[in-house]
Amino acid sequence: MSEPVIDSHHHIWRLAATPWLAGPPVPRIFGAYEPLRRDYTIEDYLADARPAGVVKSVFVQVNVASGGEVEEVAFARQAAERSGFPHAMTCFADLAAPDVGEVLDRALDAAGGRLRAVRQQIHWHEKPLYRFAPRPDVMNDPAWRRGLAEVGRRSLHFELQVFPGQMRDAVALAHDFPDITFILLHAGMLEDRSPAGWAAWRAGMRQLAACPNLVTKLSGLGTFERACSVALWRPVVEETVAMLGPGRCMFGSNFPIESLWTTYGELVGTMRECLAHLDAAGRRAVLHDSAARIYGL
Predict the structure, then answer these.
(1) Of 79, 116, 138, 195, which sits 20 to 30 A from 72 (CA to CA)?
(2) How far apart (Å, rounded) are the C-alpha atoms in residues 142 and 150?
(3) C-beta of residue 158 within 8 angstroms of C-beta of residue 148
(4) Helix 100-111 vs helix 142-153: crossing angle, to nearest 10
(5) pLDDT single digits (tens) 40-71
(6) Cα–Cα distance between 289 and 294 in angstroms, integer?
């Protein structure tokens, strides 16, 4: 029998509330995204995910209109009360904002006990297409770090989205905030598969793996090649699991973004093949148990 799946990273959205979808198309890492320019409801997600064995899920914020982060949490809560999914949530907060503590308190209230983490995307790259943060070292700003401390005071995790070139600063961040669990997104976002790119990713991942308060998601692995295949994913999956161990790795679909180049069933099937070298306990950890423990599901 196949292991049950917890999806630790998926999205739902309303087109009208999501400017990057509702406005004029602009270049994105994942290419042309016209098929995504529609509402993607919890019912749509469940139609994709349930046939693949998903039993629980974690909703992750999608950068709604400025000031709408608490409303987005309320939207996800309504979906959960209607359908039973998602079981946990990650919200957005601008950690450098002076009122970040108030925003987090409002989000906690709006989530009805389901809020587990905060994501502010701080990834920066020399290529403008891959860049999100205004500069690579936002995580070093005193004001931003004060906001991160507010995350920790509320016993929330932080979803860490960085490229290999930012991993040294990320290691220092994890050391400086030992009481916060950092959830590294997309297995460190390997975008350069040249020998030098692999070497930089491996070096940064080894340093991050040495931080006991850091875990990672095996998610978004097709983003830069816009493809889903065992040949493409297996090296990243096997090396990441070897460095952190199955108990610190968890599956995430990144759906519906990945629907631009694959189906949900193909995505889960590919991940299962990439985990075939593990024993049953290891596979179950990555596909289910790690997420259940980390997100308190």
Answers:
(1) 138
(2) 13
(3) yes
(4) 30
(5) 999 999 999 999 999 999 999 999 998 999 99
(6) 9
